[in-house]
Amino acid sequence: MKKIMVFFTALLVMLATFDNVSAAPLFKDVNDKYGSKAELDFLAERGIIFADPAQNFGVNEEITRLEASAMIIRALGLETVDRPDPNFTDVTPEDEGYDIIATITDEGIVNGNADGEFMPNNKLTRGQMAAILVKAFELKGTTEQTFKDVDSAYWASDSIKTLFANEITTGYPNNTYKPTAFITKANFGVFLARILNPEFKKQPVCYKSDGKKTAVVAVQVTNLWKSPNNNRVVDRPSISNPTDIQKWAKSMSVSQKLWLVGKTDTQALYGQEVVILKSSGNWHEIAVKDQYTPRNKAGYPGWVPKSHVTEITTDYTDCQLAIVDTNIATLYNEPKKANKFMDISYTTMLPVIKEEGDWLHVQTPANGVKYLRKQDAKVVKNFAAIPKPTQQDIVDSAKMFLGLPYIWSGISGFGFDCSGLIHSVYKNHGIMIPRDSFVQAVNGTPVARKSMQPGDLLFFAYNQGKGKVYHVGMYIGKGQMIHAPNSSRNVEIVSIDTHPYKANYAGSRRYLK
Q1: Distance of CA 385 to the CA centre of its chain
Q2: Which of 82, 213, 455, 491 has a CB 3.0–4.6 Å from the CB of 391, allowing a cystine?
Q3: pTM assigned to the model
Q4: SS3 513
């Protein structure tokens, strides 16, 4: 109790001067742009760390047990004189930091191991940190929140829950805590600052663990094949992990593209939710949940390599959604255009963990948080909150892809087929329509040819419009449509009276309301 009274007396003084944040560099590696400078400023002004602009703080260095003990003692304002000898076998009174070790053990905050060792230079793990901070500052409380890598029987589980309940930590966006990972000096300082000053406390996060496994696509784009293992050498960039769909699309000749007809049916994008129907060898048969087809009530079915799918146990439905609305966007490993992670397609949707300056921090399926430029995406509360598009919005989005080569079954900014272009553009604007043209042709609202408006869909069928629908285009006004024609051509604008479309016209449908 005595150490807590000392701590709160010191805290009142700390908070009284909190607004006086230093504008000068604290250390060589902590300048004004450093993300946690405010927290480290706070600690320096209170004498918990000692600023030196000529030296590095070591923000990414792992903190030792001795270094962490020293910061806690200074934060609590504890006296280090006249402490009893801790009697550790690896510590003598002549050792540097002896007074720190004697004080922290006398207070019962940090203890040694069963062999009587304090291990002052050992690195501190995140689990150990939780236990030490909870004990040092007598933190209370618990939570129902569970991290998927912290078993209830783990020795520091209760302490980790207490840190979460006090908003000192929220763990990682993939719902892990990493209890056995070592903690850096900067991160330890941030945790300490959050305990000392509520203004630094971690804001509630938009994600939570529900224990439910959800299968999602783990590559930029995956092809859904009619059967497993039915691919060629030229297809290797599309079945590897990571995939390189751009390389795959550009490497194929027209005849190689035509071979895909009847071999692939659709594609799924990075992060898209799927259902695993069954497995065979290194392949899963999946169903893409939001691609409607009468073939399967679970979604559009097809075979993909197992490595293209991962399972997550974190619920991101309360997170904002970033929807890529440029042809191709790039994810980066850090918020600057120098460390590329992967290119992703138009209409890829990822949870937003944080917005910062010109960057979105987005959660990926299996690679943690990556960074997306704000200019490459629109951010909405959820899919249902996407603003209702105008006719011109729909047409302008389709026109973005003029000149893009046709890819059979394509549904990405790397290459579309006719119905894939339409499906993707409408989805980007919050309107879900069926995946295939012959299903699109019997949904929506029928529209007479003479009454068509921009954004309406035109369908074409064999046998002069009386047979099965095989093609779809989007009316853009003035007797013209935009469409992805076939494997030998690119997305283009043509007259609706162009041969053979005039003769094979089978009807129009409206999906804009």
Answers
A1: 20
A2: 455
A3: 0.74
A4: coil
